[in-house]
Amino acid sequence: MLTLYCVSWPVVEAGPEQNDSTNTTTTESVSAGTEPLSLGELRRKYSETFKFRGPEVKQVALTFDDVPDPRFTPQVLDELKKQGVKATFFVVGSRAKKHPELLRRIHREGHIIGNHSFSHPLFKNRSVEQFQNEIQRTEKIIQRIIGYKPKLIRPPYGEINEAQVKWAKQHGYKIVNWNVDSLDWKGLDKETVTQNVLSAVVPGSIVLQHAGGGVGSTLEGSVEAIPEIIQSLRSKGYHFVTLPELLQTNKAN
Question: Collapsing DSSP states into helix, strand and coil, what is residue 46?
């Protein structure tokens, strides 16, 4: 069962984004009287649209949610630049509207932008129309700031229902969750975040971290873990790629 926590963000909810590799929470039923599909079942049924990892090659994609954040996003960008790694950042529209200069920096430094909704809702409890509004509202903001509409969508908390996946498929989007969860939203220290990632990475992994937090939360441990995660995996022969590179898809619609 998904557990949420509350923080005092003015618009955006915050909460743990449960590890998609083990999450079996069922999604909203598409039609009355039918049993909703689990996330695992949705991934199997819509395997070309709903992704949580890439091919089994020695590549890893680092992803960072809940950006842009004036406190943590610059720190994450600084660490990635030092290591020469490009990542994928999932943008909350309300934050991009407030901090367009940070979104421009992410784009300027060669990272990929994805869509993480406008207000960070729990999508599985929302209608297709509400889902569509959240996605399109955010992509208009992103396009206005950096010039393209992202093809990649990450639902907040990793939760989505079948009707929403169908809509995404029909309109050429990819839903991208993860198979490695750093659990950094818990405010963990560097050593714990590093261990959470390194112990779970396999070829083709998509790693979830955050570069934005709520009021009073800290991601210092996650930021500090970035160099060790990268250096350790490189020593094992892994290469770091963006999600479009890993999934062999386009970044924009």
Answer: coil
pTM over cut 0.85: yes
Among residues 65, 66, 69, 181, the one annotated as catalytic is 65
Among residues 66, 184, 210, 239, the one annotated as catalytic is 210
Is the CB of residue 178 less than 8 Å from the CB of residue 62? no
Separation between Cα atoms, residue 253 and residue 251, nearest integer Å? 7
Residue 108 forms beta bridges with which residues? Answer: none
Contact in structure between 99 and 71 (CB atoms under 8 Å): no
**39-72 confidence digits (pLDDT tens):** 999 999 999 999 999 999 999 999 999 999 999 9
Asked if residues 198 and 233 have their Cβ atoms less than 8 Å apart, the reply is: yes
Q: 65 catalytic, yes or no? A: yes
- CA separation for the pair 190, 225 (Å, rounded): 5
Task: Locate the domains of the chain by residue range.
Answer: 39-247
104: burial class by Cβ within 10 Å (0-12, 13-18, 19+)? middle
Radius of gyration of the chain (CA): 17
Q: What is the pLDDT of residues 215-236, one digit of tens each?
A: 678 999 999 999 999 999 999 9
Cα dihedral 184, 185, 189, 190 sign: positive
> How many angstroms separate the most distant Cα atoms in the chain?
54
What is the C-alpha to C-alpha distance for residues 9 and 6, in angstroms, rounded to an integer? 9
CA distance linking residue 4 with residue 7, whole number of Å: 10
The answer to whether residues 216 and 25 touch, using CB atoms and an 8 Å cutoff, is no
Supply the CATH classification number for the domain 39-247: 3.20.20.370
